[in-house]
Amino acid sequence: MALTCSEPLPPILFSVPSDPKPDTLFQVFEQPFHVSSTALKMHSAFFRKFLDSPDKAKLPSHSGCFKYRWISSIDSEGTWSLVCYTPDIEKDSQEGTNKLKSDKATEINAFRSLMSAIHMYPFDVTNVAQLVLLTGLADYYCALPRLSDALYRTCLRNPHTIAEIIRLNSCVTLEIAAKLRNEVLFKECAAHAINPWGNPAFRHHAFEDHRLKEILQITYGNLCEKVVNIQQQILLVQANLEPKDLRQHFHRASDNVLPGCLQSVGLLPSTQKKINLPAYFRGLSNSRIGLPPGFKDVIAPILSNNLVLAGSGTRTDAAGSDGFYYTYFLCTKVPDESLPWDLNDMDW
User: Fold this and answer.
1) Contact, 340 vs 176, CB < 8 A?
2) What is the model's pLDDT at position 287?
3) Do the bridges between strand 31-35 and strand 80-84 make them parallel or antiparallel, or are there none, so unpaired?
4) Peptide bond connecting 243 to the previous residue in cis, omega within 30 degrees of 0
5) Smallest Cα–Cα separation from 65: which of 111, 19, 31, 121?
C-alpha cells in the first residue's frame, strides 16, 4: 500500500498519565507521531541513552511544544531508522537520495505497534511477518522486555489470532519468542514445533540458534518416551484381559478405529502406510464399544492438552481429533529450567 503526501497526515498521539502532553515528535516518513519522552526513556534503553546525549542537536526554545524531534532516515541498503533532526538530514530525506526497500505503510504500522507497547496501549498482531518486523524494531530500539510484556496482554486479549500464527509458523515464532524471552509464547511454539507426530516441523527448519533445536529434540524425545510407555501399558491391559469377551470388545474397538488412521497418513504408497497414533488413541478414547475398565485412564495422559493459547477446550483443539490437531500430541511442555535464557534477567 503506497502512501501519498498530498496533504499532511494527522499525528498519531501517545501519552502516559504522568506525562499527558506529548513532548517528542517522531516523523516516520509522512506520518508524525507525538509521543512521551517519559515512556521512551523508561522502556527503551536506546532512547534513554540517546535522547539527551550531548552530541544530539537541541531544539530551539521557540520550536513549540516539543522537546525532542527525530525523523526517519533511509540508509544506502534501503533500511530506515530514526535520527535526531537536523536541517541537513531533513533535506536528504525530502530529496529521497536512498530508496526504502520495504513498504512504508507496513513499517509505519509496525512502529505504531512498538509505540503502543512502550506507552502501554493495546495493539494487535495478525501475522508472523508483522511479528518479525515488530520484534526487529524492538530489538533495534532496545525495547524487547517491554514488547515481551505487552505481547502477554495481546495473547490474553486475542489468543486465537496468536494461536493461528503459531500453528502456521511454529519454528519462526519460536525464534521470536526466544528473542523476546516470552515464556508462554516459547512453550506454545515448542509444543507445535515437535509436531505433527512422526514428521515434526523443527526437523525442516534451519535455526540460527542451535540451542533451540537441541531443546526441541529433547522435548520430542520425551514425547516419544511417553508414547512408548502408553503402548506398553495398552499391551499389558490386553494381555491381562479376562474373560474372553473383554478381549473381543477391545479388538473390535481397535479394528473400528485403525482403518481410518491408516488412511489419514500423507502420500505414502499403500504398502508403507503408518498409523496416525494421535488419531488412533483419540479414536479408542471416543469408542462406544465397551472397553476394559480403566482403559481410557491409561491413554488419557497422552491425549491431554497443555496448550494455553490454542487450548480452548473445543473438539477441534483436542489432540487426534478432526481439525488441525488430527496428527498432533499436545501433552508436552518445556520445563522452565530448559528455557534458553536466565529467568532472573529483567533487562536485555
Assistant:
1) no
2) 86
3) unpaired
4) yes
5) 19
